[in-house]
Amino acid sequence: MAQQENVSADLIWEISRTANSYLVKRKSAGGVQFSKDPLNLMNKHSRKYAGFVNDKAVGIHLSKNGGIALITKKTKHQNRPASNKNEVLWSSNRSGPKIYKGIANYTAKQGYRADLRQEAVARASTIRQSQRPKKDAREKKVRGAKAKDAADKA
Question: Using CA atoms, how far apart are residues 11 and 26, in angstroms rounded to an integer?
């Protein structure tokens, strides 16, 4: 039998909203606030994306072998921080669409929040795109008659 919490997630958010260890405040950008929470998909400081507050939270990170890691928060044993996270890994050899479908299927079948599914796939896509090697810049083509003549003389 699972224990019920004594404190609601809304109360936790109201208490820790203005000061918590994940909060990053920037005065230079008009007072914008970000979050360093590993279970925050958008890195925005808001109740919707706060992983430490929500019972079922999802996080996407780059794994140590260069693949994608999906981290989910378990609802059981919330008072045991070391054992209340589950991690699913996809290797870097797996194609992008298979990873995205796996993330969507895992979160749907395990009953995680449907409103975070699209953000999770978008974050995995961004991580995959950042791992691709950059292409070299193309040489500029010579255009126009005068430019072609100058290139021929040189």
Answer: 25
Phi and psi at residue 28, in whole multiples of 5°?
A: -70, -25
Please write the tens of the pLDDT for every residue from 20-64. 999 999 888 888 999 999 999 999 999 999 999 988 999 999 999
- pLDDT band with cut points at 50, 70 and 90 for residue 1: very low
Residue with tokens 């140590």: 64
Secondary structure (3-state) at 38: coil
- Dihedral angle at the C-alpha atoms of 44, 102, 80, 41, nearest 10 degrees? 0
Spatial separation of the C-alpha atoms in residues 46 and 17, rounded to whole Å: 8
Q: What 3 state SS string does 58-122 have?
A: EEEEECCCCCEEEEEECCCCCCCCCCCEEEEEECCCCCHHHHHHHHHHHHHHCCCCHHHHHHHHH
What's the burial of 152, exposed, middle or buried (CB within 10 Å: 0-12/13-18/19+)?
exposed
Angle between helices 96-109 and 117-131 (to 10 degrees): 150
